[in-house]
Write a structure and sequence with these properties.
With 396 residues, the protein is α/β, with parallel strands linked by helices. The protein is built from 15 helices and eleven strands. It binds guanosine-5'-triphosphate and magnesium ion (MG).
Length: 396
C-alpha cells in the first residue's frame, strides 16, 4: 500500500494528482484545510491537504503487503498526531466519521487480498487501537485553538479587546457557509461607517492638540479650491497658540482664498456672513485636551455661533487605545457627527481605525496620510478600510 500527501487548491486538483500517481483504485483517507504560516496566511485563502492511499496489488497479498499496510498505518498515525496540534474546531465531528470511513476502506482493501484469518484479526486489533488513539486526540481537540489563534491575530493588528470580543461574538453568529476570514471581514465591514456626503456649507474641525486639524483644513481647502474649483473661505478661532493664525493665513494667501480670525464669540456670525458667497467655509479650532471641560465648553460656545451640524472630530491613528475613549467622551459635548483619522503614515497597524470608529459611532469622513498639503488626504470606503485594518493593504 502506498500513502501520499498532497497540498492542493481544490479537490479536483487532488483527485487528478491522486489518479495520476496512485491509480484509479486509490482512496482518500484524510483531508483538511490548512493555511500558509504567518499572519498574512491567516487572511489568505486556505489550501487543502489530502492524504490518499492505494493498494496496488490487492490480489495475492503477501506478508510483504501486510508489512506495507502496517507501515502505512504507522504513517497515518504519525500524520494524525501531528495534525492534532493545528486542528480546527469545526473539523472535530467530521474527523471521527472520517476515521471510521478510512478504517472501513482500508479493511475492505485488505479483506480483498488477505485470506488468512489470523492476519485479519491482527489488523483488526491494530485498527481498533488506532481508532482509540484518534478518538482520544479528537476529544482533546474540542478545546479548540482557533478562537485563541484568532484573538491573537487581531491583537497583533492593534484591535482593542472590546472590538475583538465584538468580532468574535459576531462571527460565531454568522451561519453562512463561508471561510472564517470572510466572516471576520463581514463583521468588520459592518463596523465601519463612512461619510458619503459632499463637503459643503460650514464645516468645523475639532480635536486634541497636535492631531493635524490645521494641516487637514489646509489640505481640504487646497483640494476643494484647486482641484474641485469651489469657492472656499477659511476661519480660525485659534488665537491661543502662538503662530496658529500665521500657519493658516499662509495657506490662505498661497491659495488666494478669504481668511478671517475670530477672537470673540460675537465675531463668529460676522465672519461667516462675510463668506456667504463661499461654497464651503472651513473653521479651524484650538487643540484642547478632552479632560479640560472648561476649555471644551468655551469651544462649544464658538461652534454654536457657527450654526452648523457639520462638525468633524480629528483623532490621530497613533493615539493609544486607552486614550481613545476619554477623547471621544470629552468631545461628545461638541456634538461632532463625523470623524477624521490622521497620520496613517505614522503607524504600521491600523486597528486604531476600528477602535476609534466603534467608540465614536460616527462615520469616517477623511483619513490623512502625510504632511503634504493638499495631497495627503483621502476618502476611504469600508472595504478599503477593512483591508488596511487586516493588514492586507498598507498606506505606504
Ligand atoms: N505624518 C503626518 N503628520 C501630519 C499629518 N497631519 C498633520 N501632521 C503634522 O502634525 C503636526 C501638527 O499638525 P497641526 O495641523 O498643526 O495640528 P493641530 O491639530 O492643528 O495642532 P494644534 O492646533 O496645536 O492643536 C504638524 O507637524 C503636521 O505637519 C499626517 O497625516 N501625517
Ligand atoms: Mg492647529
Amino acid at each position: 500500500m502506498k500513502v501520499r500527501k498532497y497540498v492542493v487548491k481544490d479537490m479536483n486538483e487532488a483527485v487528478n494528482k491522486i489518479r495520476h500517481d496512485l491509480g484509479q483504485d486509490a482512496v482518500i483517507i484524510n483531508q483538511r484545510k490548512i493555511r500558509k504560516p504567518g499572519i498574512a496566511g491567516f487572511f489568505s485563502k486556505k489550501l487543502i491537504e489530502v492524504t490518499a492511499a492505494s493498494n496496488n496489488s490487492n490480489k495475492n497479498v503477501t506478508d510483504k503487503n501486510t508489512q506495507d499496510f502496517k507501515d502505512s498505518l504507522e504513517a497515518i498515525r504519525k500524520a494524525v498526531s501531528k495534525r492534532s496540534n493545528i486542528s480546527n474546531k469545526s473539523e472535530d465531528i467530521s474527523k471521527i466519521n472520517q476515521v471510521e470511513k478510512v478504517e472501513k476502506q482500508n479493511f475492505k482493501i485488505m479483506q480483498d487480498g488477505v485470506k488468512e484469518k489470523n492476519t485479519s484479526n491482527e489488523l483488526l486489533q491494530e485498527m481498533q487501537e488506532m481508532k482509540n488513539i484518534l478518538n482520544s486526540l479528537v476529544k482533546k481537540e474540542t478545546i479548540s485553538t482557533t478562537d485563541n489563534e484568532l484573538i491573537q491575530k487581531l491583537k497583533e493588528l492593534d484591535i482593542d479587546d472590546e472590538c475583538i470580543e465584538y468580532i468574535n461574538n459576531n462571527i460565531n453568529s454568522i451561519k453562512d457557509d463561508i471561510e472564517d476570514e470572510e466572516k471576520i471581514k463581514k463583521v468588520i465591514a459592518q463596523m465601519l461607517n463612512t461619510w458619503e456626503e459632499k463637503t459643503t456649507g460650514v464645516m468645523v474641525l475639532v480635536g486634541p492638540t497636535g492631531v493635524g486639524k490645521t494641516t487637514t483644513i489646509a489640505k481640504l481647502a487646497g483640494r476643494l479650491s484647486l482641484i474641485d474649483n469651489r469657492k472656499v473661505g477659511l476661519i480660525t478661532v485659534d488665537t491661543y497658540r502662538i503662530g496658529a493664525v500665521e500657519q493658516l493665513k499662509t495657506y490662505a494667501d498661497i491659495m488666494n482664498i478669504p481668511f478671517k480670525v475670530v477672537f470673540n464669540i460675537s465675531d463668529m456670525e460676522g465672519a461667516i456672513e462675510s463668506m456667504k458667497d463661499c461654497d464651503v467655509v472651513l473653521i479651524d479650532t484650538t487643540g484642547r485636551s478632552s479632560k479640560n471641560s472648561m476649555q471644551i465648553s468655551e469651544l462649544r460656545a464658538f461652534i454654536a455661533k457657527a450654526n452648523t451640524d457639520n462638525i468633524h472630530l480629528v483623532v490621530s491613528s497613533t493615539t493609544k487605545n486607552k486614550d481613545i475613549l476619554p477623547i471621544i467622551e470629552g468631545y461628545k459635548k461638541l456634538n461632532f457627527n463625523n470623524v477624521i483619522i490622521t497620520k496613517l503614515d505614522e503607524t504600521t497597524t491600523y486597528g486604531s481605525i476600528l477602535n476609534i470608529l466603534r467608540l465614536a459611532q460616527k462615520p469616517l469622513s477623511f483619513v490623512t496620510t502625510g504632511q503634504n498639503v493638499p495631497d495627503d488626504i483621502k476618502n476611504m470606503n469600508s472595504s478599503e478600510l477593512c483591508k488596511l485594518i487586516l493588514g492586507e493593504d498598507s498606506i505606504c
